[in-house]
Amino acid sequence: MKKLISIAAAGILLLGLAGCAAGGDTPAAGGSSEPKAVGDLVVGFAQVGAESGWRTANTKDVQAAFADAGIELKFSDAQQKQENQIKAIRSYIQQGVDYIAFSPVVETGWDAVLNEAKAAGIPVILTDRAVDSKDTSLYVSFLGSDFIEEGKKAGEWAVEEFADADSVKVVQLEGTTGAAPAIDRAEGFAEVVGKDDKFETVASQTGDFTRAGGLQVMEALLKSNPDIDLVYAHNDDMGLGAIEAIEAAGLVPGVDIKIVTVDAVKDGMQALADGKINFIVECSPLLGAQLVDIVKTLNDGGTVEPRIVTEETTFTKEQAIEALPDRQY
Ligand code: GYE
Question: How much distance in Å is there from the Cα of 125 to the middle of ligand 1?
Answer without folding.
Answer: 17
